[in-house]
Design goal:
Length: 338
């Protein structure tokens, strides 16, 4: 009788996952209680006008700097105009290889004696120096650089949109019991870890084709290369563009870039509808030797302004599932027929 009553309660709540959490190991901590723990670092959640996450850290107990959180970067970096702004000493003799799927290059370095990251400290921490890019010319915040996976891999990251807070949870902290409206999407193994380590991937499906997708919070668009964009409509347009290019004299190299509207993208039991993407090939893929491999770069729009939990320890991404109205034009739902 008690078992039947428990099932009825679960159905009434429409939240089976909330009932299931009672089977978790007892050392796990409820997220809402655990986030008050003094060992957890918290920042006000600031976003650029394009939705990228920004935190403010301190250099050498003096300079406050605004840094974009970039899961698509293996290495933390400052943009070039920060060198004079913060009197950084640049070492041009010891270059660092910056691995990324949007940009890939060798870069000069600077060493920060003391980086205050909330209540944590990093000493003699190396940062790459990157040229100015569109990432640091945002209309709302002119970011000074980016925090890459070399720092973020030490934490699990929880973003609370409603409370405008972002939490960095030490990797050895007990696992969290997340609210019932947070549901996991498994991260997949990095298929390019030999050439681009530390990056995080998931598998997305477009028209029943599975594509490895880089989770990249440092970009505000979704990019898919031509080897992944195998749907008929895209290649028909590519052929048309190439015909026009040849008709115009075939000057230069044929590198078509188009904007595409994808009706549905899936990952596991979840789907996104009405997704805008850019189809293009990037030079960085050729540099690291995977230009002939299918790849999709999932930008910050992937989270659609929802609460998110990046669990690098257990290799999972948790997203908030919203109760949606008929007026919603972007939909993330549990897929009932997968």
């Amino acid at each position: 009788m008690a078992k039947i009553l428990n099932i009825i309660i679960c159905l009434l709540l429409f939240d089976l996952s909330a009932c299931a959490v009672t089977t978790k190991k007892p050392h796990n901590l409820k997220a809402l209680e655990a986030l008050d723990n003094p060992d957890i670092i918290r920042f006000p959640l600031t976003t650029t006008s394009h939705g990228r996450w920004v935190v403010t850290v301190t250099l050498d107990d003096n300079h406050k700097v605004d840094m974009i959180l970039d899961t698509g970067a293996t290495y933390s970096a400052f943009f070039n105009d920060s060198v004079d702004k913060f009197n950084l000493i640049v070492d041009d003799t010891n270059l660092t290889r910056i691995h990324g799927l949007v940009a890939n290059s060798y870069a000069s370095n600077t060493v920060i004696e003391h980086l205050s990251f909330g209540t944590d400290s990093f000493y003699n921490k190396s940062f790459a120096i990157l040229p100015e890019t569109k990432n640091n010319t945002d209309k709302v915040i002119a970011a000074d650089g980016l925090i890459g996976m070399d720092i973020m891999e030490n934490y699990r990251v929880f973003v609370d949109v409603k409370k405008s807070q972002i939490y960095f949870i030490p990797i050895d902290f007990p696992d969290l019991l997340l609210p019932g409206n947070m549901t996991p999407i498994p991260l997949s193994s990095n298929p390019y870890r030999d050439v681009a380590p530390r990056l995080n991937f998931l598998t997305l499906s477009i028209k029943n084709k599975e594509i490895p997708a880089l989770l990249d919070t440092g970009t505000d668009v979704h990019i898919i290369n031509w080897h992944a964009a195998t749907f008929v409509e895209a290649h028909a347009l590519r052929a048309q563009l190439k015909w026009r290019w040849k008709l115009a004299g075939a000057v230069g190299e044929f590198k078509p870039v188009i904007r595409a509207h994808v009706n549905e993208v899936r990952s596991g039991g979840y789907k996104w509808q009405d997704v805008n993407m850019i189809i293009k090939d990037t030079d960085s893929l050729d540099i690291i030797g995977i230009s002939d491999k299918p790849i999709l770069i999932a930008g910050i729009e992937f989270f659609d302004n929802r609460n998110v939990y990046l669990d690098f320890k257990n290799n999972k991404l948790w997203l908030q599932i919203k109760h949606l109205s008929h007026d919603d034009d972007k939909i993330l739902t549990i897929c009932q027929s997968c």
